[in-house]
Write a structure and sequence with these properties.
alpha+beta, wza like fold, Outer membrane lipoprotein wza fold like, 2 domains, 5-stranded mixed sheet, 3-stranded antiparallel sheet, 4 helices
Length: 194
């Protein structure tokens, strides 16, 4: 599959403004000519990294260009460097997984590509090897934990999804013919009664 068709894949939700930094990502920050200020940083659970001389900066939800601009402003306002040249790269993306159990060909975690926010359930199961021969495709359970804005688990919801109907375009889930799977979801595919 070419990169263009992957980018236009309607079974995948992406942030149109690009990849946003999140907890666990590893960043490389390079301050030109300032070896002591350059290095690798892991984004903390609070969404921050600690830079030399300026301390912690909030990077969660920002792209690399926004982090560069923020660091430049901070170094200038703290009167450390007059015109710093800063480059930020994502060295390693944090894993964002969905867990598959039951009658699927590859059980266990399926890791989302870094730039993907959500994926259609049909696509997730397909990429994870598809259903086994005895799968009950019209009654798949998706368990999702709902979090508040501080990251605390509030409640767990379980949805019953007719994946076979969705894949054939026969059923709708709400207003869509897709059921979106988000990182952290659990997909359980029961066996059909024989």
């Amino acid at each position: 599959m070419s990169q263009t068709s992957f980018n236009n894949d309607p079974s995948i939700l992406r942030d149109p403004t690009g990849y946003k930094i999140r907890y666990g990502d590893k960043l490389m920050v390079n301050v030109r000519g300032q070896q002591e200020c350059s290095g690798d940083y892991t984004v903390s659970r609070e969404g921050k990294i600690r830079l030399t001389y300026i301390g912690e900066i909030q990077v969660n939800g920002l792209n690399t260009k926004a982090i560069e601009a923020l660091a430049i402003r901070k170094y200038q306002t703290e009167l450390i460097f007059r015109n710093p040249v800063i480059n930020v790269f994502v060295k390693d993306y944090s894993e964002r997984v969905v867990f598959l159990t039951g009658s699927v060909n590859r059980k266990g975690p399926y890791t989302f590509p870094p730039e993907v926010e959500a994926m259609n359930i049909v696509e997730v199961i397909s990429r994870a090897g598809g259903f086994s021969e005895i799968a009950r495709k019209n009654k798949v359970y998706v368990t999702r934990t709902i979090y508040d804005e501080r990251g605390n688990a509030v409640k767990t919801e379980t949805y019953t999804v007719d994946v076979e109907g969705l894949s054939k375009g026969l059923v709708r889930f709400g207003t869509s013919k897709k059921f979106w799977i988000y990182p952290g979801d659990r997909i359980e595919v029961p066996e059909r009664l024989i």
